[in-house]
Design brief:
The complex is a heterodimer of chains A (591) and B (238). Helix content of chain A is 35%, strand content 19%. In chain A, helix 1 runs parallel beside helix 11. Chain A starts with a strand and ends in a 19-residue tail after the last strand. In chain B, strand 6 and strand 7 form a beta hairpin. The chains are: A alpha/beta (591), B alpha+beta (238). The complex binds flavin-adenine dinucleotide, iron/sulfur cluster (2 copies) and FE2/S2 (inorganic) cluster.
Chain lengths: 591, 238
């Protein structure tokens, strides 16, 4: 079977904030660009982002300084965020945020008519010396929705070519290791097409669905990471998963950190504001990893709330109805729907919930994907033709723990940067890497495998087994023996999934086929996570081990690199050389 | 509990039909989307869209026991009281008035086309300042109740005027977004926007039936927005 080929200068896979910021740049440049998304763009996960986008635009505080934001981000990352990338993000951030306003994003406003900013966790003034900052630009508690719609609207204005409800299945790369494009399936008709392009940009978002309980949308199955790993591209710091302190207990649905930014706080079953014990200065606005661990300690020590003592409460009623309805309207809605609790009257039951993938495809500030010369070790090498931006990328601005509001900034700053870089490259005559017929066949093999499956376990049962394994073995607190067991369970699952069965072979809008193809990706992300988590023998940021409770700067002040070819975990140096400021030296991290 | 679902696969079915399922929710008052997931475990061939599962992405607009809504935020007890006690069935159909691709998945092209017609993006040809364009809290407040639309199509597919004239009448969702930009103090294309709406069909086919308001899962009020545009057009005519 030979398949249809469509040729572009650039193909962007993903219509979330990162993908649409990149496509907007390229659409404006006039190069032939396509954006492929497995859902209509405004249904991407960015739409769920609530609290805001963190950036030193000096509205709440006219003296605010992007260097302070940089300091907070480096500290938040537990010192394995790359300082050149963080410097770039924090310094060009204001420009990128003002552009969003010019695009029409309906930010909330201050009396002066400027963008409203609220306090978020881990924020400080004057390099940690000046107290809590308010740096998160917000459109009520619907910032992601406002941002995503504004970007979609601008893409309409500039005639971006959308392939909506197309599922990218695998990368096409040639014998020289260059990326030539991507195979994608039109979900509506089932047609499979080769999108050939000079630049392939992954903006496929996160993979929270590897866990049984997550704040992430059902579509967050880590397809970009899966496709990369299958093509031999490594992933970096993939053990670093953020557990958000305030997922609604039982439902997994998030309530924003902005709730605590606006003055809400956590209490245990005795009504005690326990964060005062764990983080005397920042209290409820300490780093997310710190707050999530403190909550788990309360629960494990028997001070949890509810009949099973398995969650704590987020208290908001003291803020008053007016503040709640004007600043946190979406939260009131979600809480009533999913927790049956009206925050105006009663506290919201919350528990740390898998939220964000700090790791991903290693990339530089232009979005270019990287590999190491020796697989899991050696020098950085640029992978021709492949780019990664947004949550799927690890550039790395988040290191071992992301600060709230920094992801949306990451999307627009690096989406834009990649767009600009590719535009420039195309102008200078970037070349199309050519695949052979075999290369394309190779990329089709997984699609074929499911299509030809005759019997085996169902996708649903395999997916459940995978999610439960991750939940039980790689949660907030981790332990060597438990993780080793998890690693071998996943190896076993790999065998079972390879024999999995897709019963429905129809073409038109076959969501069973989509779910089968997604399952392979969940497995890739889960296995990489498991091996990296077991391999990093220290506790840092979101990665917290009973058997190695301390941060070990001597051995682990570095990125981890997982090489899919050998399943080996190696190390890669962190960048400590910002261009315009002095290096922020690692310190003990307290809040 | 009993669930009855509209089924249609263009490759195998000449006609759509309703299929009955028996689902065990263990007595829990689940959301309709959770029930669909349970059905899909029994029968993976069932097709429907979903993404955020929290009412913000607009993927899973469908018709449940006669009313349009989002499956993920619609509890059984609300949409079909008595269904858990076996007194009636949960009946799920695709959004009415749009072509069905498969099962509960409709072709939204017409809906999106109407949206695009209102130029749903900020237009301002004056040079952008080095910071944001200033906007007072009062000016910004005018956008509340407008910008929150999630393009789920629950409203337009419950609007009789849209059923009869889906090509010419823009429908409540598109008109709400049309007004969202007319109401934005940062936008400078007001006159051009109004001219585009000033014909017998685009807007004036709205008969004020208010179906759109009663189904909007985000509590938005397209009828009111349409009224505002109407006033602006009249004012301009004088
Ligand atoms: C509930 C919640 C609230 C959050 N709130 C905030 C916040 O307030 N501030 C903040 O900074 N961050 C927040 N975050 C994090 C932030 O929203 C995400 O990290 C970010 O939106 C990811 O954007 P993205 O563009 O990388 O990917 P996404 O928005 O996830 O988009 C991924 C895109 O890729 C497409 N795609 C994926 N796989 C394929 C495939 N195989 N083929 C074709 N297309 C594909 C999808 O269709 C989609 O368009 C929040 C996260 C959650 C879960
Ligand atoms: S009020 Fe107008 S737009 Fe709304 S349902 Fe009625 S006719 Fe349609
Ligand atoms: S106005 Fe309401 S019902 Fe209509 S598309 Fe928007 S959110 Fe959906
Ligand atoms: S799944 Fe997103 S609105 Fe229901």
């Amino acid at each position: 079977m030979s398949i249809r080929t469509i040729t572009f200068d650039a193909v962007i896979v993903g219509g979330g904030g990162a993908g649409m910021r990149a496509s907007l740049q390229l659409a404006q440049s006039g190069f032939k660009t396509a954006l492929i998304s497995k859902v209509f763009p405004t249904r991407s996960h960015t739409v769920s982002a609530q609290g805001g986008i963190t950036c030193a635009i000096a509205s709440a505080d006219p003296n605010d300084d992007w260097r302070w934001h940089m300091y907070d981000t480096v500290k938040g990352s537990d010192y394995i965020g790359d300082q050149d990338a963080i410097e770039y993000m924090c310094s060009v951030g204001p420009e990128a945020v003002f552009e969003l306003d010019h695009m029409g994003l309906p930010f909330s406003r201050t009396e002066e008519g400027r963008i409203y900013q609220r306090p978020f966790g881990g924020q400080s003034k004057n390099f940690g010396e000046g107290g809590q900052a308010a740096r998160t630009c917000a459109a009520a508690d619907r910032t992601g929705h406002a941002l995503l719609h504004a970007l979609y609207q601008q893409n309409l204005k500039h005639n971006t070519q959308f392939y909506n409800e197309w599922l990218a299945t695998d990368l096409v790369k040639n014998a020289r290791g260059q990326v030539c494009g991507v195979i994608a399936m039109c979900i509506e008709t089932g047609e499979v097409v080769f999108f050939k392009s000079k630049a392939t940009v992954f903006a496929t978002g996160g993979a929270g669905r590897i866990y049984a309980s997550t704040t992430n949308a059902l579509i967050n199955t880590g397809d970009g990471v899966g496709m990369a790993l299958r093509a031999g591209v490594p992933v970096q710091d993939i053990e670093m998963w953020q557990f958000h302190p305030t997922g609604i207990a039982g439902a997994g649905v998030l309530v924003t950190e902005g709730c605590r930014g606006e003055g809400g706080y956590l209490i245990n079953k005795d009504g005690e504001r326990f964060m005062e014990r764990y983080a005397p200065n920042a209290k409820d606005l300490a780093g997310r990893d710190v707050v999530a661990r403190s909550m788990m300690m309360e629960i494990l020590d028997g001070r949890g709330c509810g009949p099973n003592g398995d969650h704590v409460y987020l208290k908001l009623d003291h803020l008053g109805e007016e503040v709640l309805h004007s600043r946190l309207p979406g939260i009131c809605e979600l809480s009533k729907t999913f927790a049956h609790a009206d925050p105006v009257k009663e506290p919201v039951p919350v528990v740390p919930t898998c939220h964000y993938m700090m790791g991903g495809i290693p990339s530089n500030i232009h979005g270019q994907a990287l590999r190491l010369s020796g697989g899991h070790e050696g020098d950085d090498q640029i992978i021709d033709g492949l780019f990664a931006v947004g949550e799927v990328a690890c550039v790395s601005v988040h290191g071992a723990n992301r600060l709230g509001g920094n992801s949306l900034l990451d999307l627009v700053v690096f989406g834009r940067a990649a767009g600009l870089f590719i535009e420039d490259g195309l102008r200078q005559g970037m070349e199309q890497a050519e695949p052979s017929r075999d290369d394309i066949e190779q990329a089709m093999s997984r699609y074929r495998r499911w299509d030809e499956s005759k019997k085996g376990e169902s996708v649903t049962s395999l997916r459940k087994a995978l999610q439960q394994t991750m939940q039980n073995h790689f949660g907030v607190f981790r332990k060597g023996d438990l993780m080793a067991e998890g690693v071998s369970m996943l190896a076993d699952l790999r065998g079972r999934i390879a024999e999995g069965h897709l019963d429905d072979k129809s073409k038109a809008f076959n969501t069973a086929r989509v779910e089968a193809l997604e399952l392979d990706n969940l497995l890739e992300v889960a296995q990489a996570t498991a091996i990296a988590a077991e391999g990093r023998k220290e506790s840092r940021g979101a990665h917290s081990r009973y058997d190695f409770p301390d941060r070990d700067d001597e051995n682990w002040l570095c990125h981890s690199i997982f090489d899919p070819a050998t399943l080996k975990l190696g190390k890669r140096a962190v960048n400590f050389s910002p261009k315009t400021v002095d290096t922020f030296q690692p310190k003990v991290r307290t809040y | 509990m009993k669930v009855s679902i509209y089924r249609y696969n263009p490759e195998t079915d000449r006609e759509p039909y309703m299929q009955e399922y028996e689902v065990d929710t263990q007595g829990k008052d689940l959301m309709v989307l959770d029930v669909l997931a349970l059905v899909k475990e029994q029968d993976p061939t069932l097709a429907y869209r979903r993404s955020c599962r929290e009412g913000v992405c607009g993927s899973d607009g469908m018709n449940m026991n006669g009313k349009n809504g989002l499956a993920c935020v619609t509890a059984l007890s609300i949409v079909a009281p008595g269904v858990l006690e076996g007194k009636k069935a949960l009946v799920i159909r695709p959004l009415p008035g749009l072509p069905v691709i498969r099962d509960l998945v409709v072709d939204m092209t017409m809906f999106y086309n109407q949206y695009e017609k209102v130029q749903p993006y900020l237009i301002n040809d004056t040079p952008a300042p080095a910071i944001e364009r200033l906007q007072s809290p009062e000016e910004r407040e005018k956008l509340d109740g407008l910008y929150e639309c999630i393009l789920c199509a629950c409203c337009s597919t419950s609007c009789p005027s849209f059923w009869w004239n889906p090509e010419k009448f823009l429908g409540p969702a598109a008109l709400l977004q049309g007004y969202r930009f007319l109401a934005d103090s940062r936008d400078t294309a007001r006159d051009d926007r109004l001219s585009r709406l000033d014909d017998p069909f685009s807007l004036f086919r709205c008969r004020g039936i208010m179906n759109c308001v009663s189904v909007c899962p985000k509590g938005l009020n397209p009828t009111r927005a349409i009224g505002h545009i109407r006033d602006m057009l009249l004012e301009r005519a004088i």
